Amino acid sequence: MFKLLSKIFATPKELHENGVLGMNARNYKFISKCNKRSLYPLVDNKVITKTLAQEHEINTPKLIGIIEYQHEAKNILDIIGDYKEFVIKPAQGSGGRGILVVTEHNKEIFTTASGRKITYNEVYQHISNILSGLYSLGGRYDNVVIEELVHFSSIFNNFSYQGVPDVRIIVYKGFPAMTMMRLATKMSGGRANLHQGAVGVGLDISTGKALNAVLKDKPVTIHPDTNANLMDLAVPLWREHLDIGSKAYDMTGLGYIGADIVLDKDKGPMMLELNARPGLAIQIANGIGLQKVLKNIDKHYPKNLNAKERVDFVLNGGKF
Q: Among the residues of 18-90, which ranges form H helices?
């Protein structure tokens, strides 16, 4: 299966027979049927998502402040107050675009996660660009979210280059269906986005241990920058990761969703964001067709379970 998904010229018949989910099928069979468009703002707007997460007791980085209008951009220093490190992001951004991570500053010079020094005026301009819709879905005017910086667990130090690694969970009708960890590389600029060159590691849904790994859709076993053996990767507090994904379904009412989770060294697993249109590269990372997994959930998984019971069922290999 893994060899098939990595083939450049795999035929549609081969892909279909192995349960590979394509974009058209994803959009028609799952997104359009499971996700009411009226519910999209619950995940497209990070301010709304954070508010809901707090109501549902889902761990998420603390909100420091929000900037809604251009004239408020000049208040950035007042908003961050004593915070020396923080993250600036668009409320309606996608694909990691427009996220600025600041690790220290003296109110005039700001240091980013990559060690680059930028001026106050550059931070101001970045905020202005977010507000104008440069990074938002559809180019719409946006809000700026400023939140606490996550201090990721040292257990992943050898597995990621500079950036924060995260776990992506595809949740279907409340059940965690497929998972992977995304690891930043020098190529990806420290970002955990596969299309930018991050490593994707498929994880066993029951254990959180590595199954396969890919870089630019090609199989790998060693991280290109840290030389870590990717097959040694195992995510601790795995139950807590799956709990967040399962609760995200109850929180939003969206039946097909991607949950992105990071592991903070002090606060444990934290939900970064949710996605109502999660990508399909997770299949390549796992070497498994997603459509086959989703059909199995439809046919054999019980209905009317709460979040805890759904995770129990998944951890027990899909049976009671």
A: 23-25, 32-34, 41-44, 46-55, 76-80
299, containing H or E segment: helix 290-300
């998420």: which residue's tokens?
60
Residues 221 and 108 in one domain: no
Please report, as a single letter, which amino acid is at residue 153: S
DSSP string of 275-296?
ESS--STHHHHHTS-HHHHHHH
**Number of Cβ within a 10 Å radius of residue 21:** 23
C-beta separation of 150 from 61 below 8 A: yes
Q: Hey, what are 249's tokens?
A: 């379904």
Q: What is the pLDDT along the chain (320 residues), one digit of tens a residue?
A: 555 555 544 555 566 667 889 999 999 999 999 999 999 999 999 999 999 999 999 999 999 999 999 999 999 999 999 999 999 999 988 777 899 999 999 999 999 988 899 999 999 999 999 999 999 877 889 999 999 998 888 899 899 987 789 999 999 999 999 999 999 999 988 778 888 899 999 999 999 999 999 999 899 999 999 999 999 999 999 999 999 999 999 999 999 999 999 999 999 999 999 999 999 999 999 999 999 999 999 999 999 999 999 999 999 987 76
- State which residues form the domain around 76: 62-147
| Contact between residue 210 and residue 239 where contact means Cβ atoms under 8 Å apart | no
User: What amino acid is encoded at 40 in this protein?
Assistant: Y
DSSP percent split of the chain into helix, strand, coil, nearest 5: 35, 25, 40
Do 27 and 163 have their domain in common? yes
For position 181, which CATH number holds? 3.30.470.20
Q: Are residues 18 and 34 in the same domain?
A: yes
